[in-house]
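Changelog-adjacent note: as of this version, every example in the card shows the full chain rather than a window. The one below runs 383 residues end to end.
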Amino acid sequence: MQMRNVPMIYHETEHGIPPYLWNLSDTQFYKDKGSVFSCFACGGGSTMGYKLAGFDVIGCNEIDKKLVDVYVSNHNPKYVFDCDIRDMLKYEALPRELFNLDILDGSPPCTSFSMAGNREKDWGKSKKFREGQKNQTLDDLSFIFVSLAKKLQPKVVVIENVSSLLIGNAKKYANDIYTQLESAGYHVFHKVLNSKNFGIPQSRERVFFIGIRNDIAAPLLSYETNIFGSIEMPITYNDSIIPFKNIRIDAGTTISPPLTDLAISLWEKTLPGRSFSDAHENGSWFNEIKAHPDKPLPTIRASGLPYDYIAPRKIYLEELLQAFSFPQDYNFLNLSANYVCGMSVPPLIIKNLALTLHSHVLAAKRIDSELQQTNIFRERTCI
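Full-length structure tokens:
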């Protein structure tokens, strides 16, 4: 016997307007699905996803005070912990509501595991990363987050990070996330998801570790296999990939300075969809990408933007916001929208993940007693 599979809702289009083109001021958020607390909240990408799915995001934790200001200006949360999560973990008098969460969400900084970063060279080092502007280690933050989950015991734990966490030596960190979540009382699985498959015009692949508290997971398991192993969460959710040409505009708000003569020269010699390194005599400028009209934008970094394929320019603000499914009226205060978005999870991917978790876990009906008594957990499958 298996639970009823409910497909993800990924692309509701109202009056011809795609879901990635929206405004906060025009959106009515319902709070009937449960409560969420967001750690490493950045500017609020994940928070918007949960809110769009109908969850009440009651608070956030973020070390960077400038990002906290952006978050508060847009979301006005009930609880704000503008501190290192290590300090939050030490608090003895946390609000009672945090011990009755439906979802504890966290996106630990991915700098240490990104293929574009130093990876192993930075592991275990205490240094001043941009995230927080203080001396700290980043590669252990997932484990600090799990310690907070062990303390709060939410029904569901969601950890998001770069998919390269599953590659090479970083696998040991992924395995440790499994081990520590399991020891904290959770059944764990993970999914590699790409935003382009959720009606978002950007290719952005991330891994999501999902922990379901054991007392909630047990009734959702069949005799032979965990229901999550066959849950209707395939890698592809949207039959139509949204190319850059669908969101491109001829004139918009410029968010970067005019290109240098060298950049223009490389842009002219580079084919759409390719890196400027193809045209650079030393193979440099690898991260500078000219967008392809018939493909989603490439992964957008917090430190850089892709280039238009018709005019020698970087993408406009309006295009950037659609590529992240951020609202067009988001208030970034004095921070770069590129930086805030690049550090965030696209809201639509979280919205769909949250709706699936609600349908299959948080709002699941009681199933027959024979199945409820089954306590067989599937083995880890993908690390």
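Structural remarks: The two ends are 28 Å apart (CA to CA).
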